[in-house]
Amino acid sequence: MNFLRDYSNLLNAREACKIAEAEYIKNPRDVDNLTKWGGAMLKMYNNGDQDMTIEDVILKLEEAVFLDPYHHEALYCLGEAFAIRAPEFNDKTSIDYYSKKAIACYQQAFDLDPSNEMYRIMMETYVKGIKKILAEDEQLMTSVSEFYPSFGTKLFEVADELAMAATVTEELRGKLKQMLKNQQRTNLIMANMMSFIQSRFPGEDVYPIIQAARQAYYIFLFCYPFYPFCSYNVVLCFG
Question: What family classification does the UniProt entry report for this protein (predicted)?
Fold first, then answer.
C-alpha cells in the first residue's frame, strides 16, 4: 500500500509540475506558482523520481524567494530542500553550510507566520537532528584520535612492506623483460638456422639435422658465459 501511495503522490506531483510550468510561461513572476512548482518538484524527488535532482528543486525555490523574500511557504520549502541536501555531502563544511541555510529558512518562515506550528516543529526537529549528528561525529573523532597512534604505526609498517614489494616487483619485471628479449633472440637464431640448413640441403629430410643443430645451440648457450655477444655472432653467421 505504501508503494501505491508513493506512486500516486509521484503522479500527482508530476501533474502539478506540468500545470505550474504552463502557468510560469504566462507569468514568470508569480511567486505562488513558483512555490507550488518547487514544492511539487520536492515531492517528486522525495518519491524517487530519477529525473529530478535536489539542485533543481533548490534553484526553483530560490527563484521564488528572490522575487518575494517574505513568502513564508517558499522559505519553508527551500528549508526542506536545504535540509535534504546537507546529508548528501561527506565533508563537514558543506554539511554545516546547508544545515545553517535550512535552519535560517525555517526560522524566517516561522517568524513570518508564527501561527503555523508546523514551521516551529520542523525547525526544532531539524536542529535536534543536526545536534545529534554533530555529537556522533565528535565522538567518532575522539575514538579515531585515541586509536590513531597504534593505527598510524601499523600504517607505516604496511607502507614499508608495500614499498619493498614494489621494489621486488620492479626487479622481477626487469628480469622478465630480459628473458623475453633473450627468447626473441633465440627464436630469431633458430629461424635463421632452419633457413640456412634448408638452403644447403634442398629436397632432403632436414628434421634430424635441425634437431641436432638445436641441441648443439642450447649446449653452446649453457656452456658459454658471454651469451649476448656470441648470440649476436651466430646471428651474423646464419644471417
Answer: Belongs to the Tom20 family.
- Residue 56 dihedral angles phi and psi, to the nearest 5°: -65, -40
User: Which of 88, 115, 142 is the last residue in one of the domains?
Assistant: 115
Q: What is the pLDDT of residues 122-138, one digit of tens each?
A: 888 888 877 776 666 66
- Answer whether residue 229 is part of any domain: yes
Round to whole Å and give the CA distance between 91 and 117.
32
> Which residues touch 153 (CB under 8 Å, ≥6 apart)?
none
Q: How far is CA 39 from CA 48, 60, 79, 168, in A?
A: 15, 9, 11, 61
How far is it, in rounded angstroms, from Cα 226 to Cα 178? 15
Residues of the domain holding 173: 151-238
pLDDT per position as a tens digit, 66-79: 999 999 999 999 99
Q: Are residues 227 and 161 in the same domain?
A: yes
List, in order, residues 6 or more apart from 194 with CB less than 8 Å away: 206, 210
